Amino acid sequence: MSVSDWQAFISQTDKRMADLRTGIPGVTKGFHEVARSAIKPGVLDSKTKELIALAIGIAARCDGCLAYHSKAAAKYGASREEIMETIGVAVYMGGGPSMIYGAEALAAYDTFSEKRQEET
Questions:
Q1: Closest by Cα among 74, 72, 70 to 90
Q2: Using CA atoms, how far apart are residues 95 and 54, in angstroms rounded to an integer?
Q3: How far lies 35's CA from each of 46, 68, 116, in Å?
Q4: pTM (2 decimals)?
């Protein structure tokens, strides 16, 4: 993992995902629907669901998950303290590798949180 520019990482990944959507439109449409349905507010609100997804992304060591779920958590109003506690749960579940990815998730969140503040 060597992401330092989370905005550029998302831009690059979005372009790659566009290519994937062209090649396997049915699969990507189905995945999009699963994601949309999973994050839709229910008993748990969307922010909580994004925090869960972020914790799983940390434990799974998925750079894309860190980027997209940190961005979404910021969009839904997650605080830095909530991100910290999410990282704590991920470390508990994923051990040392999750500690490293937790630090990366915090850097990603800080990037998107600052951008969100600039937009308001």
A1: 70
A2: 15
A3: 11, 12, 22
A4: 0.82
Q: What is d(CA 1, CA 97) in angstroms, rounded to the nearest whole number?
A: 11
pLDDT digit string (tens) for 23-62?
Answer: 999 999 999 999 999 999 999 999 999 999 999 999 998 9
Burial class (CB in 10 A: 0-12, 13-18, 19+), 52: middle
Q: With contact defined as beta carbons under 8 Å apart, do 109 and 98 qualify? A: no
Question: How many beta carbons lie within 10 A of that of residue 18, not counting itself?
Answer: 11
Location of structure tokens 């940390």: 58
Structure tokens at 39: 């994050």
Q: How far is CA 102 from the centre of its chain?
A: 11
